[in-house]
Design a protein that fits this description.
The chain is an alpha+beta fold. The protein has 2 domains: 31-81 and 92-126, Helix Hairpins (Orthogonal Bundle), CATH 1.10.287; 134-278, Immunoglobulin-like (Sandwich). 35% of the residues lie in helices and 20% in strands. The protein has a 5-stranded mixed beta sheet. A hairpin with a 2-residue loop joins strand 1 and strand 2 (144-149). The longest helix is centred in the N-terminal third of the chain and has 32 residues, at 48-79.
Length: 297
């Protein structure tokens, strides 16, 4: 009884300290310092909060498991260490049923819990909108990006981002050469992801989402940008010598600014669609046999 009272009096100030510490956390700290929550701003997309909660919640559970495990290791090492004057082996114990049930059931519950929450959030995040407000077709290529705005019948043809000084490492890039993807805020957007050559990965850092871009396969990503701003994008799959320069910039703007941007592309003659005819891989399964004309191009 006395030990229980001591534990109770120790637990109360510990719980109070934890609550006060959490109450004093900033939004960035509460979200594990993940991108997309800087300066207490709203989440960047409709999925950002869900992804952050899954990530941070998983780490909190794992931290608790780690603390308990470390405590038990240190407790056993200190309490049951060999004392001066002791000889021989300690009493050997086997078949401790409560402990065996504990370390079988608890990991099983943790695994099932992680699976359930991950499956729930993954289903929500990867669900396609049957009627998106905007459909953007993305082509990854060594080492740049093409963006087709299918609903507006215009495109942006990206080129490889250029370094500030050719032949000089670690000097940064020329910002004007980074491909730009412009999106309207508060609009449901479906990305259709293709590759023109090798495997790439479409990643907007502050969105906390990325999706593989696979040759011969179309992947889909659906989200709604909820905050205007400029965000960094990059390829997240090693795709060759200049993978680090396969960058792009995402600008989330108002509907009026987006309409103005579309008109600027149309005024420059960037109408239509850059499709599979520009792919480097022309011998993928399902394609017609090469003709004499195509072999001489």
């Amino acid at each position: 009884m006395r030990s229980r009272r001591r534990f109770r009096w120790a637990a109360i100030p510990l719980a109070t300290a934890v609550i006060l510490a959490l109450a004093g956390c900033t939004q960035a700290q509460l979200h594990g310092f993940l991108p997309g929550f800087q300066d207490g701003q709203d989440p960047v997309t409709n999925h950002t909060e869900r992804i952050s909660n899954l990530w941070v919640g998983s780490w909190v559970v794992l931290l608790v498991v780690g603390v308990v495990t470390w405590f038990l290791i240190l407790f056993a090492a200190l309490v049951y260490r060999r004392r001066r004057g002791q000889t021989g082996l300690p009493v050997q114990l086997r078949y401790n049923m409560p402990i065996e049930v504990f370390y079988t059931i608890v990991p099983l519950i943790l695994v099932l819990g992680f699976f359930a929450f991950t499956a729930r959030d993954q289903a929500e995040i990867t669900a396609r909108d049957p009627n998106p407000d905007l459909t953007v077709e993305v082509y990854g290529k060594q080492w740049g990006w093409d963006f087709n705005y299918l609903d507006d019948d215009v495109y942006f043809a990206g080129t490889q981002t250029q370094p500030e000084a050719l032949g000089t490492p670690n000097t940064g890039v020329v910002e004007e050469t980074v491909p730009v993807l412009v999106l309207p805020v508060d609009q449901s957007i479906e990305f259709r992801l293709h590759s023109r050559d090798v495997a790439h990965s479409f990643w907007v850092v502050d969105f906390l989402q990325k999706m593989d871009v696979i040759p011969g396969k179309t992947n889909f990503m659906t989200l709604t940008p909820t905050r205007e701003g400029t965000f960094a994008g990059k390829c997240a799959e090693l795709c060759g010598d200049y993978h680090a320069q396969m960058l792009f910039t995402v600008k989330v703007v108002s509907q009026a600014e987006y309409a103005s941007y579309v008109e600027s592309l149309r005024a420059q003659g960037f109408t239509g669609r850059l499709g599979d005819e520009y792919n480097r891989n022309q011998n993928e399964p399902g394609r017609d046999a090469p003709t004499e004309e195509s072999e001489t191009r």
